[in-house]
Amino acid sequence: MKKIVILGGGESGVGSAILAQAKGFEVFLSDNGALQEKYKIELTSRNIPFEEKGHTEENILSAGEIIKSPGIPDSVPLIQQAKAKGISIISEIEFAGRYTDATKICITGSNGKTTTTSLLYHLLKSAGLNVGLGGNIGKSFARQVAENSYDYYVLELSSFQLDNMYDFKADIAILLNITPDHLDRYDHDFQKYVDAKMRITQNQTPEDAFIYWAEDPVVTKEVAKKQPIARVFTFSEHKADNVSAYADNDQIVINTSKSVFTMEQDLLALTGTHNLYNSLASAIAAKLLDIKDEKIRQSLSDFKGVEHRLEKVATVRGIQFINDSKATNVNSCWYALKSMKTKVVLILGGTDKGNDYQEIEELVKTKVHALVFLGVDNSKLHKFFDGKIGTIVDAGSMEEAVTKAYSLSKEGDSVLLSPCCASFDLFKNYEDRGDQFKYWVRKL
Q1: Which of 110, 135, 256, 263 has most Cβ atoms within 10 angstroms of its Cβ?
Q2: Based on the domain organization, do 289 and 213 belong to the same domain?
Q3: How far is Cα 325 from Cα 416, in angstroms, rounded to an integer?
Q4: What is the Cβ-side half-sphere exposure of residue 357, based on CA atoms within 13 angstroms?
Q5: What CA–CA distance (Å, rounded) separates 101 from 66?
Q6: How many Å apart are CA 106 and CA 172, to the nearest integer?
Q7: Is 111 labeled as ligand-binding?
Q8: CA distance 295 to 269
Q9: Four-point Cα dihedral 141, 234, 195, 99, nearest 10
Q10: Of 283, 302, 321, which residue is a domain's last?
């Protein structure tokens, strides 16, 4: 019996363990940190052996195959040792993909993944399809393959998940954009990150579909190089030659070989240019899956949006507070600032992933009148922004950041938490950061 070792005991790892056990493998799960209580109970109740707060080397290196959590970099010595021994190292997505014949719609991109994935899931579910939501969002793909029998999966895939996928294939692949992110994981080499994102198209056949943003210079260059063999569909803000979906005369237009779909742009639930792209990409996929036009219209107009992504929290004394904690890179913050119609007090900071703040410099100068730096080490932010904005203050906690931002705001302003950075210096994750922001705003 083949032994499968799972490294990492979060949702992805525990889901993989459940599926591996269901498929008759000998399973062992190992995590360098502490496991959440709910996962320990789950593993124990299923008699799946595990360890936490450290790895037993000989146990791990006796594996026939290793399923690695996306959070573990390849540079970790244990992974290097396993590779040297010739042990196959795969991702949870690769593993789960072996055991389902469902249609897989996969979404990646530096920004907009979660919104597009959630919107597309909403479109399919509202149309009555038997569909699961997974990948970088919700319950793990592996757990769902073990416990459910969905006909469709909508999967959000990060570059880390794509890194260890080899035979997996997306029936419909959506690539929203590529901008610098996670460069600390890619030896500060942008091309390595680009290559990871482009893996979304691997193994596709002429029957499959690849949807991407026609105006993204990085993606269009890669597409020209790689010449994907799947059917190609593109989306763009404006009508242009060979663009499948766009906005024109206050309408959105989706062209597929079967038909043309139109809808008034004002009826879209999601506002802002970046959300237009997310809506266009989702609508192309929905059309390819033969969802009826009236269902697409209804879902695009009644979608509720994603928590921690440009989420309106409250208005206090005429000051609007917006939670965009999910903006963990500079390009995300650029989109947030672009959508602002008022003067802004901007909360930035956290764990820098090799950010280049030049991308938002002009928008900060024109829209932001005060900056609050929230982080353990704000030196890089100070070095870039000092002297460019009149008011800059530091905060060491979310309570302090909200209080200072409030005191710096005037009626009619917006306080925007759009940090550009990962959250691990002061918070558990971006959700925790956003939840704390909402808590302190409501305390004002």
Answers
A1: 135
A2: yes
A3: 9
A4: 18
A5: 23
A6: 6
A7: yes
A8: 14
A9: 20
A10: 302
Tell me the two tokens of residue 45. Answer: 């109740």
Instruction: State whether 138 and 47 are in the same domain.
Output: no
Co-location of 340 and 385 in the same domain:
yes
For 411-440, give one letter per residue: b (16+ CB within 10 A) or e. eebbbbbbbbbbbeebbeebebbbbbbbeb
DSSP states along 143-157 = HHHHH---SEEEEE-
Domain identity same for 99 and 86: no
Q: Please count the structural domains in the chain.
A: 3
User: Which CATH number belongs to the domain containing residue 79 in this structure?
Assistant: 3.40.50.720
Domain boundary among 42, 57, 90: 90
Tokens 């759009």 correspond to 418
Residue 109 among known ligand-binding residues: yes
pLDDT averaged per 10 residues, the chain (length 444): 94 97 97 95 97 93 95 90 95 97 96 93 97 93 96 95 94 92 75 90 96 94 93 94 92 89 90 88 96 95 87 94 94 90 96 90 96 96 96 97 97 97 92 97 95
Residue 4 structure tokens = 């499968």
**Angle (nearest 5°) at CA 224 between 103 and 253:** 60
Residues 211, 214, 219, 224, CA torsion sign? positive
| Shared-domain flag, residues 356 and 427 | yes
Token pair of 213 as six digits = 């943003």
Bridge partners for 3 per DSSP: 26
Is residue 114 a known part of a binding site?
yes
Quote the pLDDT of residue 182: 66
Type of residue found at 243: V
Question: Does 113 appear as a known binding residue?
Answer: yes
- The answer to whether 115 is a known ligand-binding residue is yes
Q: Which of 347, 334, 426, 336 is nearest to 391 (CA)?
A: 347
Instruction: Please indicate, yes or no, whether residues 56 and 74 belong to a single structural domain of this protein.
Output: yes
C-alpha span between 174 and 169 (Å, rounded): 12
Number of H helices, E strands in the chain: 17, 20
What residues form DSSP beta bridges with 27? 4
Residues 284 and 297 in one domain: yes
| 430: CATH | 3.90.190.20
| Report field, pTM of the whole predicted structure over 0.90 | no
Q: What is the DSSP secondary structure assignment for residue 35, as one 8-state letter?
A: P
The contacts of residue 34 (CB under 8 Å, 6+ apart) are 52, 53
Structural domain span for residue 393: 311-443
Instruction: Return all residues near 262 (Cβ < 8 A) that are at least 6 apart.
Output: 251, 252, 253, 254
Domain at 237, CATH number: 3.40.1190.10
